[in-house]
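Reader question, answered in our methods column.
A reader sent in the components of a multi-part assembly and asked whether the whole thing could be modeled at once rather than chain by chain. We filled in our standard form and ran it. Here is what they sent:
COMPLEX SIZE: two components
ENTRIES:
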Amino acid sequence: MNNLGDFLAMGGYGLYVWGSLGMCAAVVVAELVVIRLRRRLLVQEAGDERATGEPVA
Amino acid sequence: MGSINWFHYAAPQRFYPLAGQLVPWFGALAVVLTAIGLYIGLWVAPTDAQQGEAYRIIFVHVPTAWMSMVVYLAMATWAAIGLVFNSRLSSMMATALAPTGALMTFLALWTGALWGKPTWGTWWVWDARLTSELVLLFLYIGFMALHSAIDDTRRADRAAGLLAIVGVVNLPIIYFSVQWWNTLHQGASVSITKAPSMATPMLMGMLVMALACWMYCIAVALARVRLIMLERERHAPWARQALEGMA
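And here is the structure of the entire assembly that came back:
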């Protein structure tokens, strides 16, 4: 593999190889984002509960 | 003699800070090992004589497929400990592992389909290995659905835990499916009893990626179990304190 084009082409199997690696990357990013959002929501709800004195959930 | 009292950490308020300290280490290891594994897998490892470059899918397919089973076994073990000892933290660990296990199973199926198309000429066949792996995905989804369908958390732990334990029968079916039935799927990639059939860089790349997958799953499961602890114990003084510190 001499250049970037050859590397990305993966001998004609680019779609399959990069489709596999790309989905793995996407799943990892999505999982980390969801955890972050879940944490933010929890902190927000706990803050609301402290402010109002009433349970949110 | 330097032994750790594990029961000390069975209480959520003590496990919470410990897990918090461990997450960045496992996360960093996952990043470093992934970089090394991809370097070996994409640059160092030679082109396969039969499959050309398509075989490089192995570096994500085998690790995710292994983890799909390892995470299930861990989840079922924690669920069983939770059922037997009625320990909250064990059930929380089982619940924290389920989404990561489901994602690993999905990735094993996805990368398998993308590998099957160029090598077998089909995305999917209803053979024993593929079907039992799909059943594994449904077991994870069933575990999560059942858990979220029951309002009483402790009852949800017990019901979903029981499902997880029963589902363990699927693991040997997945593992031995390539020996028990005729299948398109190739046999085990790595065996303890046989000499490795792969070139060394291929094997190294796969093992490093597998290790990276382990580290990732541990980091994410610990991060998620910390959230679950806070969610469930939000009215306990330690959790209130932690939540106020995060606001």
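What stands out: Chain A has a mean pLDDT of 90. The first helix of chain A runs from residue 4 to 9.
Send us your own complexes using the same form.
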